[in-house]
Q: What sequence folds into this?
């Protein structure tokens, strides 16, 4: 099913808010990557068609913003802030512990397709370092001893059939 | 200076659950809007904000009411943009406001829109604030239900729509014209100015853009009056500022303080930062986000207001106060900060795109045990070629960390090179941070 067939009402509501259709491009790319798991070429072209934009313009947008994923990612995208001050407040230890626990390096996805690990820049909750987002939900004061519990919680949520959004459209925290 | 007994912005600290619309209303919420719509003209509201001396909290410190006055007369439609793209490293005050006190921001937006006669406002929320964007959308929906938004607000005939717009991860979109490009569905690259946004902004129309904290001040100014507002802060920096205190203090967090509070008090007082962790010493203080020049332990008596920080050679900036102790190396801090600017450079202009790349390349090898004779002159040369030549402030900001580090801690660079050329590890034998491959 196409994006329009599946999300027509939501898309119309979003596009209808703006004086110019193309203002809805980020919101629609968020929907597209949730639907297809990442921004497939076909998904980007669908968004271009809906917004009557040249596909090149939409590909350019998809390549510019860090939360738009042009490569496949896991069900959960784990993003750890490694900026100042986090990097001096436990972020590096957290990243190392996540790499060890998951058996992957930064920018890789686990073999079961569950987790992708990324380094990101300031997440604006610096007083709660070290800091991670999982599908853009915050995990604060995340010391390495808490990792197992958090990863278990995320696996359980994925197994429960909960609708997950790598775009953070349903972020609860 | 004693801490505030009553907050102007972080009222969530005074009133539990003020994020609930009912609680907000019970505590004076939307009263300012009633007062403005019934008793004041748009010009009256603009004059109040001007007289209160409210200065833009996003970084530039420009008087908000004066900015509003730049709109060309008789040209409509006009747009109001609320900048919630808070991404400056070490800054998290907007985050707390939208999470916990969203209705005061919304009321501020409505008042500002009334003052500038605008009927469509946008809140541009950084993409990572996915939850906060939902909180804001819920609060906006509630405001419509109560008749604070939409057509004929509170029977006044004034109408306003607020659109909550999520970005998708790009620090540059906090730059006002890049934000407008992004809102128009393009990549977030800044525009050449002039024309300034007040003349030709979003969709080419007159546009005013204000920071979250700036707008959140407005309801209290209108409700409690200019005189009351000016009892806080200094003559030229009236009111309060929410400083985001982070790093190696015992009690990191957001603290709303009157302008003019000494930096030392912010770091050391029990009711603010509570001193340094483990009794360590202050080494570097970045008083206004990563774009602000560094201060050292010798400068803690500076007061936190626009004028005093400028006189100290730095700036109040975003109010993100990063305090680092002697466990960090200045070479590492400069590397991490310039890595941030390199990552966020939009690529539009050569000095920023190539300059940040070169800075990080040299800083990387200095931190990696690979420093070379001549690296220090290269760093000076690169940032000097960037300074004053970048298209927007992002590139200019990237100059600041490396210039601060070389000015304040030149021996650390010399030592890193000496160790490397002697065949030893260049970064004090250990890395506090990881060295990402470039």
A:
């Amino acid at each position: 099913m196409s994006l329009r067939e599946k999300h027509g009402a939501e898309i119309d509501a979003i596009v209808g808010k703006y004086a110019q259709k193309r203002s809805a491009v980020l919101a629609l790319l968020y929907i597209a990557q949730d639907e297809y798991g990442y921004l497939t070429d076909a998904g980007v072209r669908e968004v271009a068609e809906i917004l009557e934009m040249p596909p090149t313009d939409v590909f350019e947008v998809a390549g510019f913003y860090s939360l738009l994923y042009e490569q496949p990612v896991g069900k959960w995208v784990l993003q750890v802030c490694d900026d100042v001050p986090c990097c001096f407040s436990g972020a590096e230890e957290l990243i190392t512990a996540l790499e060890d626990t998951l058996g992957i390096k930064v920018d890789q996805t686990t073999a079961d397709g569950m987790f992708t690990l990324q380094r990101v820049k300031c997440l604006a909750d610096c007083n709660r370092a070290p800091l991670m987002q999982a599908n853009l939900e915050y995990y604060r004061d995340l010391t390495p001893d808490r990792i197992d519990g958090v990863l278990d919680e995320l696996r359980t949520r994925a197994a429960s059939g909960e609708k997950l959004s790598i775009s953070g459209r349903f972020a609860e925290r | 200076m004693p801490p505030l007994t009553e907050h102007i912005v972080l009222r969530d600290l005074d009133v539990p659950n003020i994020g609930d619309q009912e609680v907000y209303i019970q505590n004076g919420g939307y009263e300012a809007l009633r007062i403005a719509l019934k008793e004041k003209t748009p010009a009256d509201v603009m004059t109040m904000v001007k007289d209160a001396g409210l200065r833009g909290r996003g970084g530039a410190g420009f008087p908000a009411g004066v900015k509003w006055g730049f709109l060309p007369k008789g040209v409509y439609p006009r747009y109001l943009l609320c900048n919630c793209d808070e991404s400056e490293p070490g800054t998290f005050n907007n985050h707390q406001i939208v999470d916990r006190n969203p209705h005061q921001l919304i009321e501020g937006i409505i008042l500002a829109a009334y003052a500038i006669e605008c009927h469509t406002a946008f809140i541009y929320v950084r993409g990572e604030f996915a939850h906060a964007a939902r909180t804001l959308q819920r609060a906006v929906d509630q405001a419509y239900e109560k008749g604070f938004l939409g057509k004929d607000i509170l029977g006044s005939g004034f109408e306003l729509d607020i659109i909550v717009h999520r970005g998708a991860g790009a620090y540059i979109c906090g730059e006002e014209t890049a934000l407008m490009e992004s809102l128009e569905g393009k990549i977030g690259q800044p525009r050449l100015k002039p024309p300034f946004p007040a003349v030709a902004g979003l969709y080419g129309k007159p546009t005013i853009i204000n920071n979250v904290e700036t707008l959140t001040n407005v309801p209290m100014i209108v409700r409690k009056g200019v005189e009351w507002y000016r009892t806080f802060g200094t003559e030229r920096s009236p009111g309060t500022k929410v400083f985001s205190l982070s790093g190696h203090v015992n009690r990191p967090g957001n603290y709303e303080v009157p302008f003019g509070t000494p930096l030392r008090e912010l770091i050391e007082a029990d009711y603010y930062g509570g001193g340094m962790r483990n009794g360590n010493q202050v080494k570097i203080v970045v008083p206004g986000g990563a774009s602000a020049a560094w201060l050292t332990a010798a400068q803690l008596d500076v007061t936190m207001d626009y004028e005093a920080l400028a006189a100290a050679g730095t700036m109040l900036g975003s109010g993100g106060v990063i305090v680092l102790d002697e466990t960090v190396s200045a070479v590492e801090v400069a590397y991490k900060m310039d890595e941030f600017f390199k990552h966020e450079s939009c690529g539009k202009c050569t000095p920023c795109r190539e300059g940040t790349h070169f800075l990080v390349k040299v800083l990387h090898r200095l931190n990696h045990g690979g420093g070379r004779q001549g690296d220090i002159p290269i760093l000076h040369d690169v940032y000097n070629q960037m300074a004053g030549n970048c298209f927007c402030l992002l590139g200019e900001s990237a100059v600041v960390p490396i210039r601060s580090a070389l000015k304040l801690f030149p021996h650390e660079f010399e030592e890193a090179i000496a160790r490397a050329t002697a065949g030893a590890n260049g970064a004090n034998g250990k890395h506090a941070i990881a060295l990402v491959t470039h």
About this structure: Residues 265 and 272 of chain B are 7 Å apart (CA to CA). The first helix of chain B runs from residue 21 to 26.
